[in-house]
Design a protein that fits this description.
The chain is α/β, with parallel strands linked by helices. Helices cover 54% and strands 8% of the residues. Bound molecules: nicotinamide 8-bromo-adenine dinucleotide phosphate (NBP).
């Protein structure tokens, strides 16, 4: 017998993905650099389906049906290159290597080009959902040739999560690095969403005096409405958890220093290069890094400013309602920035990405899965050329209704000295986009003054420079 697919790299992700394929009825060849992991998989889970364990790369490759489909689930970066270098010489034209790790899309573009020259299809597939997702159904974002998706797609569709309407949470995103690019933006949006939820928690706690358990209840209510999402559910779970040792709310015993593995940073770095204003994601990345600067925080700890002072009470839940509005409106902005980034990446790298389909495959399996994503899907379904999600009919109406409360919440936060970089940046972005005139006119004039960088006029075509150091006459330069 030969295997339908192979998985090499059997740490948590690879092992669970291999089990997922086997449980879906496929025969799965399994391999790991250290064979003990392969043996452990067979010992513990061998009865879940048809596995073909192999201890050498040659045996592993020989056990795969042609064209071979080989999933690499090793640590991103050099290990991925090492594994490709080891396996590619054993493969033949038409075979497919799938990299399911968290690769940077630029690495995926390079690997795809190198392997394409050797007749091998390289599919950089973003996989979201953590180890549970890998086992029970992740959201899968494969890039690569259309031909490779034709052979691989049905298998990915059968192991991927299913959205509420039954659609599999995977699609052919685009060529070469498109899959890893959208996975990167997914993670950036995840950072922004988590930051916004954190700000809502902070406001409810320090402005309105809610306890963590009460906030968990508020979040559960929100989670049954338009904010229904996995991250909201997780937040409520965490906030209602009590530390076993101290009996204190769990959130109060966790050190307030947020770490990061780097995909948020990649998103912001790439956005800077593409010139896309993803301020919500950037603020979230900076908020995490600020939290880790113990030295700066200690130096500033005694500086003047309002101390959090709880309001009498929010018995009627009025403030909580306002925060819900602010959170929802800010979320629309953060997601619309993320989608503009995908659009910009597609333009820059020549990917034909269906923006609605990206929303559709994030409805299940991944960390940002939410009811909300179905509205994004339908916004792009009704207008594929939508310039920004905030201009979609549904979202603009919702922001219109939310904006009074949104402004009130940002003002309250400012008055109480509660930092809300996510809410504030989202509101500033919204106001900047809808403003008729921006102070960028002054910026450009300043640039012309000190650097002769020229400017355009509102009233006629052409590029101009004013002789600031001379008689201040205006020159037409082109
Ligand atoms: P790790 O990222 O911890 O990688 C461990 C695996 O890489 C082991 O199988 C190890 O083999 C193998 N490996 C290394 Br390290 N260097 C190697 C080399 N030079 N040659 C061959 N194999 C090598 O595993 P993971 O947490 O399962 O994640 C796998 C991928 O999935 C990563 O890219 C990760 O970023 C991505 N991802 C993870 C999650 C998550 O929730 N953990 C979610 C989404 C995506 P060994 O056993 O012989 O040391």
């Amino acid at each position: 017998t030969s295997a339908d697919i192979g998985v090499t790299g059997l740490a948590v992700m690879g092992r669970n993905l291999a089990r997922n394929f086997a449980r879906s009825g496929y025969t799965v060849a399994v391999h790991n650099r250290t064979p003990a992991k392969t043996r452990a998989l067979i010992e513990e889970f061998g009865d879940e389906g048809a596995f073909l364990p192999a201890e050498s790369p040659a045996d592993f490759v020989a056990s795969l049906e042609r064209p071979r489909r080989l999933v690499v689930m090793v640590k991103a970066g050099e290990p991925t290159d090492a594994v490709i270098a080891e396996f590619a010489p054993l493969l033949e034209e038409g075979d497919v290597i799938i990299d399911g790790g968290n690769a940077h899309f630029a690495d995926t573009r390079r690997r795809e080009r190198e392997l394409r020259d050797r007749g091998i299809h390289f599919v950089g597939a973003g996989i979201s959902g953590g180890e549970e997702g890998a086992l029970h159904g992740p959201s899968i974002m494969p890039g690569g040739s259309a031909e490779s998706y034709a052979s691989l797609g049905p298998m990915l569709e059968s192991v991927a999560a299913k959205a509420d309407d039954g659609a599999p949470c995977t699609t052919h995103v685009g060529t070469d690095g498109a899959g890893h690019f959208v996975k990167m933006v997914h993670n950036g949006i995840e950072y922004a969403d988590m930051q916004l939820i954190g700000e809502a928690y902070h406001l409810l706690r320090d402005v309105a005096g809610y306890s963590p358990a009460q906030i968990a209840e508020v979040f559960r209510t929100w989670n049954s409405g338009r904010l229904d999402s996995y991250l909201m559910e997780v937040s409520a779970e965490v906030l209602s958890h009590t530390d076993a040792e101290t009996g204190a709310p769990f959130v109060d015993v966790v050190a307030d220093r947020a770490e990061q593995k780097g995909t948020g940073r990649w998103t912001v770095q790439t956005a800077l290069e593409l010139g896309v204003p993803v301020s919500g994601i950037a603020e979230a990345v900076f908020a995490r890094s600020l939290s880790g600067h113990a030295d700066l925080r200690a130096a500033a700890a005694g500086l003047p400013g309002p101390r959090a002072e709880a309001m009498a009470s929010d018995a009627a839940g009025h403030f909580a309602d306002q925060v819900e509005q602010a959170l929802y409106a800010s979320k629309i902005v953060a997601y619309s920035q993320g989608w503009n980034m995908i659009q910009a990446g597609a333009q820059e790298y020549g990917w034909d990405i269906d923006l609605g389909a990206v929303a559709a495959i994030w409805r299940g399996g991944c960390i940002i899965r939410a009811v909300f994503l179905d509205h994004i899907r339908s916004a792009y379904a009704s207008d594929p050329d939508l310039a920004t999600l905030i201009a979609d009919e549904r979202f603009s109406a919702e922001i219109g209704r939310a904006q009074g409360d949104w402004r009130a919440v940002v003002a309250t936060a400012t008055r109480h000295g509660i930092p809300t970089p996510g809410f504030s940046a989202a509101l500033a972005y919204y106001d900047a986009l809808r403003a008729g005139r921006l102070p960028a006119a002054l910026t450009q004039a300043q640039r012309d003054f000190f650097g002769a960088h020229t400017y355009r006029r509102t009233d006629r075509d052409g590029v101009f420079h004013t002789l600031w150091g001379g008689d201040r006459s205006e020159q037409y330069t082109e």
